[in-house]
Design the sequence.
């Protein structure tokens, strides 16, 4: 196993609740920093929504073509 048993998880959870790291985060303050982090979730390249939609459409077309060929035989 990975060493995280139920007791260790509970202890870690309590430590994190006491530590409260989410209260210490502030995020970017400058315009440059805000601009930089605005691209954190930016999807591009082969994983973009447009490419995935094209892949889905092509897959649907191939499936329809195979079905049509079976009807012709």
Sequence:
């Amino acid at each position: 196993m990975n060493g995280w048993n139920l007791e260790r998880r509970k202890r870690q959870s309590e430590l994190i609740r006491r530590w409260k790291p989410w209260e210490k985060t502030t995020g970017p303050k400058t315009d440059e920093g805000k601009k930089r982090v605005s691209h954190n979730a930016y999807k591009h390249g082969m994983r973009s929504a447009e490419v995935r939609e094209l892949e889905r459409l092509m897959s649907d077309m191939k499936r329809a073509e195979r079905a049509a060929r079976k009807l012709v035989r």
Summary: Residues 48-73 form one domain. The chain has a mean pLDDT of 89. Residues 67 and 73 are 10 Å apart (CA to CA).
